[in-house]
Amino acid sequence: MRYKVDTSERCIKLKLEIAYLKKEIKRLRKTLKVYTPDLKTILKRRGFHIYKKEPGDDLLIPTARSHIDEFYNKLKKYSFRLFLRDVIKYQNHFTLQQVSRYASRNITMQYLNYLKEIDLIEETTGGYRLIKRPIKSFGETLEWFISKLMEKEYSADSIWGIKFKRPLVGGDYDLIAKVDSSIVYMEIKSSPPKQIYDKEISAFLNRVDDLSPEISIFFVDTELRMKDKIVPMFEAELSRRRRRTTPVERIEKEIFHVEGKIFIINSKDSIVANIGTVLSFYFRRD
Predict the structure, then answer these.
(1) CA-to-CA distance for 211 and 48, rounded, in angstroms?
(2) Rounded distance, CA 187 to CA 22, Å?
(3) Which residues have CB under 8 Å from 72's CB, separation 6+?
(4) What are the residue ranges of helices labelled H in the chain?
(5) What is the rounded CA–CA span in Å between residue 37 and residue 77?
(6) What secondary structure letter does DSSP report for 94?
(7) Which of 146, 161, 80 is nearest to 118 (CA)?
(8) What share of the chain is helix, strand, coil (3-state, %, to 5)?
(9) How confident is the prediction for the chain on average, in pLDDT?
(10) 181-236 pLDDT tens trace
């Protein structure tokens, strides 16, 4: 009899403790949400309401979810990204020779077989063609890839291809991510430096001024030097706006910063590592 009483009291005590813990978890979740709002809320607090995002019309990724992770990992390779650009360029009909400018024939053949396996291309008379056509450019696919990279490698909330209805500043924001409680804005260029012009630097800086992100990154998917053309264009545009010389300083290799908030990077060595260098520089500075 004594044993039954003890068990009953213990059950009541446990139920009370469980109820208290549930209430405490609910309170902590509510507190956590207040102190770490989601990306949409952070943007809303700055007066930015998302009108459209992640369009997808020109997105070239596998439709089967089971292929997504492997495709993401392949996109980390510069040669695969250059290969995909040529596939898109000649999308209606292309040969092995036309898409093997940046990799050996053996590697390119492996890439072609892979795209066939995941149903992105099909064989046609004397060559290949994209199954989903037309695709305007590699731009949307690169934005999707960098957004996934921010999520997977840095546990960031990330969206790409964002449109806002703003009265003075137009254009798309290629990528916006939340790292801790900071906003990271990235302009993502799939074109080489020779096809990037002053007006694009100006448009990027206009969006930086409008959104006021903690970290702004101008990214060019190239292994060419940023110092030769991109950095001088930034120096000229910043001097014009501020009516004073504004230094663009090198962090390391082809990674530069302007006053610790605006960064210029390319894809030399590793996109993951270069973004990591920027984040580390920003969060560890005095």
Answers:
(1) 8
(2) 43
(3) 145, 148, 149, 152
(4) 2-35, 39-45, 68-75, 78-89, 105-117, 139-154, 198-211, 230-242, 271-284
(5) 34
(6) B
(7) 80
(8) 50, 20, 30
(9) 92
(10) 899 999 999 999 999 999 999 999 999 999 999 999 999 999 999 999 999 999 99
Confidence tier at 116 by pLDDT (50, 70, 90): very high
Structural contact between residues 210 and 168, judged by C-beta atoms closer than 8 angstroms: yes
* Cα–Cα distance for residue pair 113/116, rounded to 1 Å: 5
Q: Which residue has the tokens 């530069």?
A: 256
Structure tokens at 141: 């696919």
Alpha carbons 50 and 162: distance in angstroms, whole number: 7
pLDDT, residue 9, reads 81
Taking a C-beta distance cutoff of 8 angstroms, is the pair 164, 157 a contact? no
pLDDT on residue 15? 83
Residue of 115 and 30 predicted with greater confidence: 115
pLDDT digits (tens, 9 = 90+) for 23-36: 776 676 666 556 67
Residues 6+ apart with CB under 8 A from 222: 192, 193, 266, 267, 268
Rounded Cα distance, 233 and 215, in Å:
19
In degrees and rounded to multiples of 5, residue 123 shows phi and psi of: -75, 145
SS3 136: coil
Reported pTM:
0.86
Quote the CA–CA distance of 87 and 101 in Å, as a whole number.
Answer: 11
